[in-house]
Amino acid sequence: MKPKVMFLDDSNLKLFVDYLEKLPYLTYSKDVILDQKDVLSFKYYHNNTYIIAVGNIDPEKRHEPVTNIRKSKVIGHICIMHPATKHGYHQEHVLEVHINIMPEYQQKSVGKTLMKFLLKEVKKGKKKSGIKKIKTKMLANNEKVIKLFESFGFEKEAIMKEEWKLIIEDKETSKQKEVYEDGVYMSLFLD
Distance between CA atoms of 162 and 165, rounded to whole angstroms? Predict the structure, then answer.
């Protein structure tokens, strides 16, 4: 599948927001109980920059190139965190990114297509922006995404013990319990 990849703009904002509303419920396993904070973490923030991958709605045409945005849907995205929302000038040379792909489109080169677009755009504007490093973080057990980032030269910088707290329903007791998962920080230094 070859999705159409582009920067989010006003013309496709509604399409993107509709996608974001569904994403938290598709991203986490069925055992995880989502609260309002989980859902808000997938909210659209106008200060961030988004790169979106768009695919055809019609299953018969899903392998064809996207020719009409109105007959398509967002199937994945990269969020580029706005530098002003980080740590002031101390990290203005660091770009923080996060990637999400709809489950049914994972392992179909959507992530690779998004990453190629991101790196091309960052390298194109590197001199002007002063970006020297791209970083990301994720659950340490997210092997598919870790391999994706490693395939583009990202390296693990740190494993953070019990970085993520998830609330799950215990299948035996039907009670909620907290589970702590390790996180991994990865980065790519730009030449």
Answer: 7
Q: CA distances (Å), 159 to each of 138, 147, 163, 185, in order?
A: 10, 15, 9, 6
Checking if the pLDDT of 171 tops 90, the result is no
Place of tokens 């923030």: 45
In the numeric block, which tokens belong to residue 184? 């991994």
CATH architecture of 4-135: 3-Layer(aba) Sandwich (3.40)
pTM (two decimals): 0.86
Of all residues in the chain, what percent are helix, strand and coil, respectively (each to 5)?
35, 35, 30
Neighbouring residues of 97: CB distance < 8 A, sequence distance ≥ 6: 78, 79, 80, 81, 118, 134, 135, 136
